Amino acid sequence: MIEFIDIHKAFGANKVLDGVSITVQTGQILFIIGKSGAGKSVLVKHLVGLIRQDAGRILFEGTDITNYREKDFYEMRKRCAMVFQHSTLFDSMTLIENVALPIRKHRGVSRAEALEQAHAKLALVHMDHLADRAPGEIGDGLRKRVAIARALTLDPEYVVFDEPTTGLDPVSAVRVDRLIREMSDRTGVTSIVVSHDLRSIFGIADRIVMLYQGKVLLDGSPSEYRRCENPVVRQFVNGLPEGPMEL
Ligand SMILES: Nc1ncnc2c1ncn2[C@@H]1O[C@H](COP(=O)(O)OP(=O)(O)OP(=O)(O)O)[C@@H](O)[C@H]1O
Ligand SMILES: [Mg+2]
To answer: Residue 242: inside a domain, yes or no?
Structure first.
């Protein structure tokens, strides 16, 4: 379980998070949604120490990580992996070498052993048959899969996906969604997905938290979102250009 408790974060005069409290339950797929600039990426970056809160506390499995120093986050980043929006695979390496890299670095195993473990992770995302290709030889959707495999290399308990389907064609996007669901069901990993992709949200979320004006506007299941009568939630859920949502 991860608990964000009353998190505040501003950049100068720009108050981004204004008292956000969210509990992430183990084993769930939790979506963080909201319009562009709502603070979704800022919020999740707190988890791995890329951004530090101005006020509030964060508990990771009961441990208070609020005042962690940079080096304390090294261990956290193994337990909580991030898949960034623009996945950064090394072009000069094959796909399997990309996935093997963190294994070599952190596990101190032989090259052969690292490649074997990497192969198993590629198989999890159904990419083992393309192991020896270079990132430049495959499309964006497949690259995203490899980035997901790489995030799973150190067997994290949590994976944060920042906009995993943005920029993908609709078919690749649905496949990535399905992969996240499958991964969650098969490995029990807890997923935090930042997204504004309505199809993903209603396709695979167990729970959805909507950020608006620095606060949690609604925290509930997909069916609660469908039923919710708050006009801002309605506008978002229906993807309407006109409505009360501020620009
Ligand atoms: N390092 C930073 N320094 C200053 N301002 C920042 C920084 N990171 C984010 N911001 C600001 O914080 C606000 C929230 O940004 P954030 O990236 O969390 O939005 P988002 O909800 O992830 O949006 P998007 O859907 O476009 O990715 C924005 O106004 C952004 O300009
Ligand atoms: Mg973002």
So the answer is: no
